[in-house]
């Protein structure tokens, strides 16, 4: 899962290359189980930034 936001071209290239990683059904199931076990708490954005989403 590439996460852009960097100053160096080498990191941008590294992030872009991550899109070529293929995850198996077992990999996805493991990630889903982990995310479910950890749970999610709180909002993703604060109120100000939430108002900017989708503009």
UniProtKB/TrEMBL annotation:
InterPro entries: NAD(P)_OxRdtase_dom_sf. Gene3D superfamilies: NADP-dependent oxidoreductase domain. This is Aldo/keto reductase family protein. It comes from Isoptericola dokdonensis DS-3. The lineage of its organism: Bacteria, Bacillati, Actinomycetota, Actinomycetes, Micrococcales.
């Amino acid at each position: 899962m590439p996460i852009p936001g960097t100053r160096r071209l080498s990191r941008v290239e590294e992030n872009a290359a991550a899109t070529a990683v293929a995850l198996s059904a077992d990999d996805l199931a493991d990630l889903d189980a982990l995310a479910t076990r950890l749970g999610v708490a709180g909002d993703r954005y604060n109120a100000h930034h939430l108002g900017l989403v989708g503009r």
